[in-house]
Amino acid sequence: MSETYTLSFNIKAMDFSAAGEASSTIKKVLMHLGMPPSVIKRAAVCSYESEMNIVIHSYGGTLTLSIDSSQVIINAIDIGPGIPDIEKAMEAGYSTAPEEIKEMGFGGGMGLPNIRDNADILEITSSSAGTNVKIVINIGG
Amino acid sequence: MKLSDIISLLNAEPLNQFDPDIDVVNACGSDLLSDVLAARYDKSLLLTGVTNIQVIRTAEISDIKAVVFVRGKRPQDDVISLATKLSIPLMTTSNSMFAACGILYKNGLPPGDVQ
User: Does domain A5-138 match CATH 3.30.565.10?
Assistant: First the structure.
C-alpha cells in the first residue's frame, strides 16, 4: 500500500448505544486489509478506549483511522472540555468519570493507560477547547 | 473447555443459539471492561455482571469467545441481538461471580491473565 487510507467517524457525546460502532468498523477494516493479528488487536483496543473517552468525557468529536505501508494511526479529536491533568489521567486507576459510567463497566481509570500500553507512539494535547490523541501502531512490530 | 461443559457445570441457560462444541482456552471475571481490554485475552470466556451493550463491544474488540452473565442477569434484547450478529455465545447462570469462577477454575479452566 503506497498511499494513505483514511476513514473518519463522528462520535457523539453520551451516546452509549452507538459507542463502539466506529471501533468495530475499524477492526473489520484492519482484518479485511490483512493486518497482523497483534496490530489489529492493539489498534482495536486503542480505538475503542479512545472512542469511549470521547463518548464519556467530551462534548463529541471524531475518530480517524489512517493507514499507510508502515503504520496504523488513530486520531481521536474532541471539542472539549479537555483533560485538566494529563499526567494524572495517565495513572492506572485515576478516574474523573461519574458513578453511572462506572456502573456501566467503564470509568475505571484504565482508558489512557490501556492506550499507552498498546501504542508505539502516543501523543496527547489538551486544552479547554478540546483534546487531540494521536496513536501510532507500527505494522512491522 | 467446551461451552457445553460450561453450561452443565454452571447450570447455565443459553441466551442465543450457538455451537456447544465451541472451545474456550481460559477465562476472566470482571465488571470493569477496561480491565478486560487491558489483559489481551484470546479465545477466552468472560464472566461478568454487566449487561449493557458495551460488554458485547468489549468482547468483540478483545476476541472474547463467549460471555456468561452471573447472578441470573439477563441483557436486553438489543444486546442479545448484537451478540448474535457477531456470533458471540451468551449464557446466564444463577451462580455469583466468585462461585462461577471457582467452579470453572476447579474443573480445569485456567485464568487468561496469569502474571
Answer: yes
